[in-house]
Amino acid sequence: MKKATLFLLPVLLCLITEAQQANYYHFTEEFYFVKEVPAVNYRGKNFRYEIAVKSNPADTISKVRIHGIGVGKNNDDYLNSDFRIENRQEQDWTVYTIVGTVDPLAWKLWFYAAVNGNGHFFFDDVNCYIEESPGKWKQLHLYNSSFEEKSSDIFKGYYVSRKRSDKIRTTLSSEVYKTGRRSLHVQTRSQKPVIETDNAKN
After folding, report:
1. Beta bridge partners of 119
2. Distance of CA 189 to the CA centre of its chain
């Protein structure tokens, strides 16, 4: 059930992102991975979630999407999550920051990184901070936060779309990284966008 829930949520988030446009597009072989952060002990507190991304898209519509959502006790209990997404440049990396407050009903926070389209995309430095008191932030320990753990499963500590495709290749890069010695490299090719029209807006 959790895998099905995680599969459907990126589609929902994609539609919300494009909701202000009469036409929107998606890629049927979108790749995503999710970091879950337990939230019960941080209800009502402010948080910051960060992930560093280096993108080399093959065209103008291929991109990375970053999203976050609060989840209740059940995995399909999505909470109204009015989170803000900021970004800043650090050399040739873009650091995306999801900023918000943990809902009083949240049991966990899910943070998505999705690759839509074609190109080379690198991910590194996943961090989460909780504001324990005004102006005082605590960094949470996140397992495999920079893809440095020694494991045969490069996604250990994450949920990941497991749909096999010869158009998507995921590896660890020891040549491109922001900190440490490696990053996650997602290479996608030969994907074609599906364009849909929101008739309700016409």
Report:
1. 57, 188
2. 20
Q: What is the pLDDT along the chain (202 residues), one digit of tens a residue?
A: 455 455 445 544 554 444 444 456 667 777 899 999 999 999 999 999 999 999 999 998 899 999 999 999 998 899 988 899 999 999 999 999 999 999 999 999 999 999 999 999 999 999 999 999 999 999 999 999 999 998 889 999 999 876 778 889 999 999 999 999 999 999 999 888 777 665 544 4
Torsion of CA 112, 62, 116, 90, to 10 degrees: -20
Q: Residues of 162-176 as b/e, b for ≥16 C-beta within 10 angstroms?
A: eeeeeebebeebeee
**Structure tokens given for 11:** 């589609």
pTM: 0.84
Q: Which of 72, 76, 132, 129 has the alpha carbon at shortest distance from 98?
A: 129
**Alpha-carbon distance 3 to 34, whole Å?**
11
How far is it, in rounded angstroms, from Cα 49 to Cα 4? 24
44 exposure class (CB count in 10 Å sphere: 0-12, 13-18, 19+): exposed
CA 188/CA 180 separation, integer angstroms: 24
Q: How many CB atoms lie within 10 A of CB 97?
A: 16
Pair of tokens at residue 36: 């879950």
Task: List Cβ neighbours of 192 (8 Å cut-off, separation of 6 or more).
Answer: 27
The DSSP secondary-structure symbol of 141 reads P
